[in-house]
Amino acid sequence: MVGELSGLYGRPANYTYSTACFARALQIPVKLYRDLVERNNLMPIIEHTWKKRAFLETTSMFAEGVPYQVIGQIVDSIQIRHYGAGEVISCKDLTLLNVIKSGKVSRLFGGKLVDTLEGKDYFGEEEAIFDTPCLFRLEATEPVETFQIPGTLLKDIPIVRWKLYEAYLKRATQVVHTNDNSDSIRWNNGFDIKVMEMDTHHKKLVEIANSIIENMRYGTDQGSLEKAVDSLIEYTEYHFSTEENLMKSYGYPAFQEHQKKHKALVRQVMDFQDEIQKNLIHPKWIFMGSSLTG
After folding, report:
1. Do domains 77-154 and 180-293 have the same CATH topology?
2. Backbone CA torsion sign across 266, 211, 219, 227
3. What's the CATH code, domain 77-154?
4. Spatial distance between the Cα atoms of 141 and 262, rounded to a whole number of angstroms
5. Strand-pair partners of 113
6. pLDDT digits (tens, 9 = 90+) for 210-219
7. What is the DSSP letter of 59?
8. Local structure of residue 103 (DSSP, 8 states)
9. For the chain, what is the radius of gyration of the CA atoms?
10. What is the CATH number of domain 180-293?
């Protein structure tokens, strides 16, 4: 349906529409539509939906490039979530993209403030869109209201995915390169092997390892920690497989030896997973992640 708000409120439309293919439309007289809305007491629902849509369209994420009907689906899916001042935002809530309607959220890494989020900012894209464990600790610094949106609705919208990816990559790279917490793994140029694909993989492994360290440091729920470890295992196996195929294609002379190291490291990660599941975590594991870039 198009033009419904203009008909109800008597205001100019915000959009210009054009057909992408042959279309047949049913034109409903404004008076008949108004009578239908009033008779079924639909105005409160329409107004509430319109307010949510109007807010989303003022954000950088949804201001342009998102089809009108897709915005409608997103608005229909929104769940409203409130956080009290000082409340830590759980990893469960980070499986959804959260757009802040009001209030402020601190984004922390290693106990240090990375940035402060406020109205129209967002968080949760790591898991919701990119299936990556939450890297940061988030805490409401004052009462917060968010619009929670399922990532499945956003993954296939190119402009939204690209905006989220740019912001996410910038933050993750900043933390991996600049954190100075002694328990965290800091990227340095010595890890570079000058092969772009492999260096990207190594940075991703460091990022996942740091997310595990954050989970262990602050004692988040067991499910979140196990999910982060599962991601580490999955990405480690993917990385080693890709690296070995690259080595074989170039006739790397020490391939067999390197492959043995990979198998040993995979076993080490599996042992780590076993320790997590048994709640037998030893401090030595904190430093395990740095060896995965080898």
Report:
1. no
2. negative
3. 2.60.120.10
4. 43
5. 108
6. 777 777 766 6
7. S
8. S
9. 24
10. 1.20.120.50
Indicate the residue type of 210: N
Q: Which residues contact 41 (CB under 8 A, 6 or more apart)?
A: none
Q: What is the pLDDT of residues 230-259, one digit of tens each?
A: 888 888 888 888 888 888 887 777 788 878
Query: 163 and 127 in contact (C-beta within 8 Å)?
Result: no
d(CA 76, CA 150): 11
Distance CA 178, CA 196 (A): 20
3-state secondary structure of 201: helix
Instruction: For the full predicted model, state whether its pTM sits above 0.85.
Output: no
Q: Hunting for tokens 């030595």 — which residue is that?
A: 284
List the beta bridge partners of residue 149.
Answer: 97
Q: Which amino acid is at 174?
A: Q
78's tokens: 């929104």
Comparing CA positions, the residue from 65, 53, 74 lying closest to residue 4 is 53
Helix (H, G, I), strand (E, B) or coil at 124: coil
Tell me the residue length of the chain.
Answer: 294
What residues are paired with 99 via a beta bridge? 122, 147
Distance between CA atoms of residues 41 and 34, nearest Å? 10
